[in-house]
Amino acid sequence: MHRIGLAVAMACVLCACSSVDPKETAVSSARTAKCDTSNLDWAKGQPANEENARRLVRESGLGLWRIIGPDNVERADYRPDRLTIYTDKNNVIQSLDCH
């Protein structure tokens, strides 16, 4: 019984000691994600509702997304693995970009 407990404790210590750079993880995931907005022109002029947003995310090949309206403050964090949906004051999609 002591051996199992010791093995679990050692595994926890080794995991805690391993260093994973969050920047390196973000960069590697950004390299594997491929954002493509070339086939998403159908969305321009459409409402930014849940149905259209889900379809855009699915067709872009990304899991991350955000909607930016004219009164929103856009953070300057660059994420090539994120779809950004820009809307006007009436919540109508104006443009799409990967960042």
From TrEMBL:
Pfam families: Inhibitor_I78. This is Peptidase inhibitor I78 family protein. It comes from Noviluteimonas gilva.
